[in-house]
Structures are given as structure tokens and as C-alpha cells.
Design goal:
β4, α4 (91-102) and β5 form a beta-alpha-beta unit. α10 (223-230) packs across α11 (232-245). By secondary structure, the protein is α/β, with parallel strands linked by helices. The chain is built from 16 helices and eight strands. An eight-stranded mixed sheet has the order 3-2-1-4-5-6-7-8, with helices on both faces.
């Protein structure tokens, strides 16, 4: 199949690699000439370690490189069956690009946005045929992460969704359909994982205590470790965006400690300083580790239940998305089955009763709970 990729930054090149390795012919471009000129060298550099480890043969490496053709302009992408954009996360940029692509692509071509936060409906609003627009949210790094969120807007055609799913699954991805709602599934449901950890920090607990409690509960990485890994600036931007989209509801409160990390340049791994960087000498689980984990998991479950109540997804897809998108050991509804609804309701009720003024209504249970 002929695939187009617009944008050759880390994400765009990663998507191109995934699809080229799956045997598709990929034509890709970028507005920046250096990004176009270096694309093959960067792709080769990404593939070489896999060859060295024996995970990829030299023949497969060469076939992947040959499957990627870098072109000068979006117009050169035609005749692609599917075009995926991975350009700047700005609504006006994506709208203009979709309008430009519509004028040169065949009528049956599908246009996909890799947005992680913008409304697919809004991105496609200026198209003459919005039914061929969908969201395809790959996770970073695209060659490693198995999950792809497939996001239809209200007018997306079944054919567009089926073709996009087919392409992603042919590349070994697990596709979950997500509602065209702020944050989709993963970024929406992840907020309390970070937010409740920051609420604990606000109450005087240390990042090391919270991290150790979550590690003891079976998580590969806890909330502060994950913020340090992703970058506090990235986490802040995602939290602020969702808070704005959700009318500043207390469930998406932007905590002062996160703002301070960014203001102080303590961004995590990228800056050499963070919540847990430099790392503490040890991470012993506190005496109330079970209670800390239950508190964070109760808010995770509640957010997932609120999303479910809004429609457009399923319990199984939410669980799959959180396990694959964030490497959680269990999804929210698996956690609900483990703890029981009564235990979760009780935990939320206690948190709401003790919540400070700026967090009141944060813990109100979703209807399904």
C-alpha cells in the first residue's frame, strides 16, 4: 500500500519506519530541508542497533530503507492511499495542511492526524470531504510502542476507519478506537496518575515515598519517575491543555509543584534534574504504601469510569490502552474488579471529604461507580 507521512521529526520518522518495515511504500516530506536530507541517515542509525543485536537482518534493514522515499512537497505524496501528518501541534497548521492535501490527493485517499490533544473534528472542519479524515495517535517511540489510538469524528466514514486499522495492524500495532474527546483515552485517563501523586506531594509526602509505593504495587515506573522520563514541561503542557478543554474541572487541576519544576528547569532526564533525578540512594516503600497506591488507583478508576460514561469506548479498550500506552500492570477496570466498587467508592468519599477548597468535587464518583 502507498502511505504518505508529513513531518520528519522524531515521531514522523518513527511512523515512517514502522510502516516501511511492514512492507508499505512510504513517501515522506517535511517543510525543513535538513529534516528531509537527513531522514535516510537517521533511519539507518535507528535500524543499525537492531541489526547488531540480530533482531533485524541486513536485508530487512536495506528493504526498509528502500521503502522510504523522501519527497520535496506534500503534493509529491500523491498517489497515497493513506496520509498521516505528524506536524506541529497547532490547529491552524493541521487545518491548512489537510486543505492542501485534499486538493492533490485522489478522492479515496484517507487523511489521518497524529494529534495527541486536538479535536479531530476541528482539524477536519474546513475539509470539503471530512468523512475521509480520522485520528491515528501513535505513541513515542513509534517503532517500540504497540498502541495506536484510532479516533473517528462524527462524520468519519467506516471505510476510512477500516483502512487505517488495517494498515496499523499490518505493522503489528494494537489498535483501540477512542472517542474524539480531550485527551482521547490514554492522555485523559493518565491525568490522575500524575495528579494524585502531586496532590500527595502538596500534602507533604515526598516523590520517593509515592514512587516506592507504586513500585511496590507492581508498576514498572511510578508517577514521578514517569514525569522525569517524559519531561515535566511535556507533562505540564498536556495537563494545562486538558484542564482548559475540560473547563478547569478540579480532576484536571494543574498543581503548583509541577509549574515550579518547569519554571526552575527541573524537567527530568532531559535536564539532569527532576523529581527523582538525581535518584535517591534507595526507595523503601513507606508503611502506608498500600493506601497510597489505592488512592492513586481509585482516581484512575474514577477517571476511566467518567470517560466510559461519555460514550465512544469500552472497558476493554480503556484497559488495553492504559496497559500498552503507559505500561501499567493492570487497566482501570481490571483494578476495579480487583478492589471492588465499594472499596473505590469509600476511598473517593474519604478523599472528597478531606479535599481542600481548590480540589472540591475532584473525587465525586462517576455514575457507573
Amino acid at each position: 500500500m502507498q502511505i504518505g507521512v508529513i513531518g520528519l521529526g522524531t515521531m514522523g520518522l518513527g511512523i515512517a519506519q514502522v510502516l516501511a518495515q511492514a512492507g508499505h511504500q512510504v513517501r515522506a516530506t517535511d517543510t525543513q530541508e535538513p529534516a528531509r536530507a537527513s531522514a535516510h541517515d537517521r533511519l539507518r542509525a535507528a535500524l543499525e542497533p537492531r541489526v547488531a543485536k540480530g533482531a533485524l537482518s541486513a536485508r530487512e534493514r536495506d528493504a526498509t530503507l528502500a521503502a522510504l522515499t523522501v519527497v520535496a512537497t506534500p503534493e509529491d505524496i500523491a498517489p497515497a492511499d493513506l496520509v498521516i501528518e505528524a506536524v506541529a501541534e497547532k490547529i491552524e497548521v493541521k487545518q491548512a495542511l489537510f486543505a492542501q492535501l485534499e486538493s492533490v490527493l485522489a478522492p479515496g485517499s484517507v487523511l489521518a492526524t497524529n494529534t495527541s490533544s486536538l479535536s479531530v473534528s476541528n482539524i477536519s472542519a474546513r475539509m470539503s470531504r471530512p468523512e475521509r479524515a480520522i485520528g491515528l495517535h501513535f505513541f513515542n517511540p513509534a517503532p517500540v510502542m504497540k498502541l495506536v489510538e484510532l479516533i473517528p469524528h462524527s462524520g468519519s466514514s467506516p471505510r476510512a476507519l477500516a483502512l487505517a486499522r488495517q494498515v496499523c495492524e499490518s505493522a503489528g500495532k494494537v489498535v483501540v478506537e477512542a472517542p474524539d474527546r480531550p485527551g482521547f483515552i490514554v492522555n485523559r485517563c493518565a491525568r490522575p496518575f500524575y495528579g494524585e501523586a502531586l496532590a500527595l506531594l502538596e500534602e507533604g509526602r515526598s516523590p520517593a515515598e509515592v514512587e516506592a509505593a507504586m513500585l511496590a504495587a507492581g508498576y514498572r515506573i511510578g508517577p514521578f519517575g514517569l514525569i522525569d522520563l517524559i519531561g515535566a514541561d511535556i507533562n505540564l503542557a498536556a495537563t494545562e491543555g486538558l484542564a482548559q478543554a475540560m473547563n478547569q474541572h478540579p480532576r484536571y487541576h494543574v498543581f503548583a509543584a509541577l509549574r515550579a519544576q518547569v519554571a526552575d528547569g527541573r524537567l527530568g532526564r532531559k535536564s539532569g534534574r527532576g523529581f527523582l533525578i538525581p535518584p535517591p540512594a534507595s526507595l523503601p516503600a513507606p508503611a502506608d504504601a498500600v493506601q497510597i497506591a489505592l488512592r492513586i488507583e481509585a482516581t484512575l478508576i474514577n477517571e476511566a469510569a467518567w470517560l466510559l460514561s461519555e460514550g465512544g469506548t469500552t472497558r476493554d479498550d480503556i484497559d488495553t490502552a492504559l496497559r500498552l500506552g503507559l505500561n501499567f500492570p493492570r487497566g482501570p477496570f481490571q483494578l476495579l474488579a480487583q478492589h471492588g466498587p465499594a472499596s473505590i467508592r469509600a476511598a473517593l468519599s474519604e478523599l472528597e471529604a478531606k479535599a481542600p477548597a481548590h480540589l472540591k468535587c475532584r473525587y465525586l464518583p462517576a455514575p457507573d461507580l
